[in-house]
Amino acid sequence: MTETNSSTALASQYATQVSSDLERNVKEQERIRAEIDTLQEQLSALLHDHTVLMNIRQALDVATPAADTAEAPQQAPVVPAPRGKASTATSKNKKPAAKKSGSAQRRTSGGKQARKAAPAKTAEPTLVELISRHLAAQSEPRSAAEVATDLGQAHPDRNIKTTVVRTTLEGLVAKNRAQRTKQGSSVFYTAPDAPAASAQAAASEEQPQPDHAE
Questions:
Q1: What pLDDT, in 10s, does the model give residues 119-160?
Q2: Does residue 45 contact residue 182 with C-beta atoms inside 8 Å?
Q3: Residue 214 and which of 64, 98, 170, 205 are 20 to 30 A apart at CA?
Q4: What is d(CA 193, CA 10) in angstroms, rounded to the nearest whole number?
Q5: Domains of the chain
Q6: Measured between alpha carbons, how far is 118 from 108 in angstroms, rounded to an integer?
Q7: 77-86, pLDDT tens digit by residue?
Q8: Residues 190 and 138 sit within 8 Å (Cβ to Cβ)
Q9: Model pTM?
């Protein structure tokens, strides 16, 4: 009888340990998925910036030969011309070259300004930044579905999915950049500096109050 009780206790201990290891394994998987999603967003932004910069460089490469061609007549040796009408024609031919050079310089300067302005337009906050800002602006805990809905309405151009938001939230919890509370079978998230009293207040409101007998 004693051996049976010992075996039962040992099996219960192993089961508890296995459950704990499984829970840690699942949390680690969710944290790694969140980091992968964040890196993929950063890679997409870098690829977009690379494409814009390549287009600007190609535009500058096209404008540079035009400037060299416009300056070539000025560097050619000057041949003495006969007096009279020929000298007048030579002075007239020099003016268009100066105009072409000025237009080429304007194109080059315009290309440099476009190169400086382009990266500023493509900089967008990552999903981690959006979620962190959203949690910090909330006065009560929010579920992953609620966060995904709010961000989807605020940023309709971005395909924000609930599963990705939940994984990102778990990654923030693992890095102590968010807090995780459980109310029954539901999971809610708050900013790290949010008061824990709000979560407890929300839990107490969901529990039915007992009737007091007179």
A1: 445 678 899 999 999 999 998 999 999 999 999 999 899 888
A2: no
A3: 205
A4: 42
A5: 16-72+96-124 (no CATH), 125-206 (1.10.10.10)
A6: 15
A7: 566 665 555 4
A8: yes
A9: 0.38
Give the burial class of 193: count Cβ atoms within 10 A of its Cβ; 0-12 exposed, 13-18 middle, 19 or more buried.
exposed
CB of 161 within 8 A of CB of 131?
A: no
Using DSSP's 3-state secondary structure scheme, residue 176 falls into: coil
> CA–CA separation, 18 vs 11, rounded Å?
11
CA-to-CA dists, residue 92 to 87, 99, 139, angstroms: 9, 12, 76
Q: Are 42 and 126 in contact (CB under 8 A)?
A: yes
Provide the token pair at 186: 């539901």
Query: What number of H helices and E strands is found in the chain?
Result: 6, 2
**Higher pLDDT residue, 4 or 26?**
26
Q: Radius of gyration of the chain from Cα atoms?
A: 34
